[in-house]
Amino acid sequence: MKNVTKFLQVLMVFILFVFATPTKAQTTVTVGNGVISCNYPYATYWGGARSQFLYTAAQLTAAGAVPGTLTSIGFNVITRDAGTMNLFNIRLGNTAATTITSWTTGLTTCFSGSYAVPGTGWQMINLTTSFLWNGTSNLILEVCYDNGYNYTSYSYINGTTAPTGQVFPYWMDGSGGCTYTGASYTGYTGLPNLRFVETPLVTGNLTGTVKNCFTNAVMANVPVSCGGVGPVLTNGAGVYTLNGIIAGAQTITANFAGYVNYSAPVTVIGNVTTTYNFCMAPIPAVLTGHVTNAANGVAVKGAKVVVNGNVTYSVDGGLYTLNVFPGGSYPATFTKAGYRDTTTAAITLTSGVTTTRDMAMQEVANPPSTPFTAALNGGSTAVNLNWGV
Predict the structure, then answer these.
(1) Which of 294, 307, 315 is nearest to 359 (CA)?
(2) Which of 14, 198, 215, 246 gets the most CB atoms within 10 Å of its CB?
(3) What are the DSSP calls for 159-224, one per residue?
(4) Is the pLDDT of residue 17 over 50?
């Protein structure tokens, strides 16, 4: 009975986990609705071809795409040729580039094998390796094949006019297809209409306040990024908000002139807004130098150095080093028992820069203690003076 009860408890936890875990169904996204007739990427009138296309994040988002995993892609075929494309590859990649000026390398091979266009209309190809679009980058798509010197006829597909630089094609008998690295054909602006099926990723939001680690004051206009989302600027209250971050372990970053760049791991929870506050450390201005006795040049250890409320002490050899927040023009004060307090004129200190200022301190002259005696010597040639410690 005890084991049955334990089993039921485990089963209940499993059921709660399954039904509480957010999931999203697959969606179909169509990018472009133009009717330009494109003889690429299925340029089977030639033995081999390689074509790369760039779809901007704005184009994808406008079509309804969200961060997610692409599992199939396809083109809208106008006329079909039955020829088989051998060594056929589909490759995908996220990119910050806004145009293609040379063959993009480092793409993920998502399909490799042989392919023949099966008919007209939207013809989808199931990817053997799914591809994650991060929701913010532009997307590079490559389609290529190599039949050597064997050719049939074109399969034409519909495309939409796009700015120059989003279409990068080449075809020729014996070109090598996917291995071709020479010049592309120019003048083509018909970007193939693209359809893909994706499984949207669960996303969450991140918000928080950014402060100065030294003064605890809020910081405005700090650019904050996380998981490929952003940067967004903090408002006048130092608050940032990032929406649509892929749930899970991410890295949050921020940078601001005069401050150490910030980077830290953060966990984004799906379908909720997580609060993450942090502070940024100002880059200090550094003041350094040696403290000595003005009378004899001997190093002074233990001298207190104060600049704008920042404090340090001289160590062996009289050396001191002080980080000053923030940079600016300030006097420096040197104090030590047995020496006169000394304050310099304003020293200009710059964040991230080391400034050297040595200090020779005047030893305090102490009055003689009692008893004090003065006695003329026997020859009346000198006066002997004596006093206590």
Answers:
(1) 294
(2) 198
(3) EEE--TTSEEEEEETT--GGG--SPPP-S--EEEPEEEEEEEPPEEEEEEEEEETTT--B--S-EE
(4) no
Would you call 235 helix, strand, or coil by DSSP? coil
Name the one residue in this structure whose structure tokens are 């104090």.
335
pTM: 0.57
Which residue's structure tokens are 């301190």? 361
What torsion, rounded to 10 degrees, do the Cα atoms 334, 336, 339, 343 define? 20
- Residue 123 token pair: 């013809």
What's the rounded Cα separation, in Å, for the pair 72 and 258? Answer: 47
In the prediction, which pLDDT does 135 show? 85
Rounded CA-CA distance 305/300 in Å is 12
pLDDT for the residue numbered 21: 38
Query: Could you give the CA distance from residue 212 to residue 216 in angstroms, rounded to a whole number?
Result: 5
Cα–Cα distance, 368 to 387 (Å, whole number)? 6
The tokens 């697959």 sit on which residue?
26
What is the C-alpha separation between 378 and 129, in angstroms, rounded? 113
Is the distance from CB of 314 to CB of 305 less than 8 angstroms? Answer: yes
* Three-class SS state of 49: strand
Confidence of residue 9 (pLDDT cuts 50, 70, 90): very low
CA 28 from centre of chain: 30
* 30-49 per-residue burial string, b: 16 or more CB within 10 A, e: under 16: ebbebebebbbbbbbbbbbb
pLDDT at 19 over 70: no
DSSP label at residue 178: G
Confidence band, pLDDT 50/70/90 cuts, at residue 23: very low
| Contact predicate 64/196, CB 8 Å | no
The pLDDT value given to residue 84: 97
**Six-digit token pair at 201?**
């990723």
